[in-house]
Amino acid sequence: MSPLAAMLAEAEQPSQPPRVEVVRLSTSYWQDRRGLHIRRDITHQKRKCSGWQFLQEDPGMIGAEESVKTITNLNSCEDGLYSVEVFNEHRDWESGQIEEYELRLVPFVEPA
C-alpha cells in the first residue's frame, strides 16, 4: 500500500472518543469485636468514562494487587472523584506496543 493510500485509509476511519477514565475514591472505617478496620474503594463512574479503562480491564489480566500498585499517588489522595492518567509509558522497541506504565489520580473537573 502506498503512503498516500495509507493516509487516505486512516482519514476515512471514524475517530475514536478520547480516553477518559473517572473513578470515585472512598474510604470507610469501622470497628468490630476483632479490631479496627480501614477500607479504600475505587469505583468506576461508567457514564463519565470512554475509551480503554485501565483500572477496569487490568485486574482481570494481572490481578487487583498488581493493578493497585500501578497507581503512584493513591495514598496521598483524599476521597472524591478522580480522572485516571497514564504516564511513564515504556514501549517495546520492536513492536512499539506499551509494555509498562504507571497511573496517577488527578482530581476530576467536569468539562464545561
Task: Give a written overview of the molecule.
This protein is an alpha+beta fold. Helices cover 22% and strands 38% of the residues. It has three helices and four strands; from the N terminus they run H-E-E-H-H-E-E.
Q: How many distinct helices? A: 3
Question: Quick one: biggest sheet?
Answer: 4 strands, antiparallel
Helix content: 10-25%
Low-confidence region ranges = none
- Evaluate the radius of gyration: 19 Å
N-to-C SSE string, H for helix and E for strand: HEEHHEE
- What does the average pLDDT come to? 85
Spatial order of strands in the largest sheet: 2-1-3-4
Instruction: Based on Cα principal axes, name the global outline.
Output: globular
Strand content: 35-45%
> What is the β-strand count?
4
Decide which structural class fits the backbone.
alpha+beta
Q: Report how far apart the termini are.
A: 42 Å
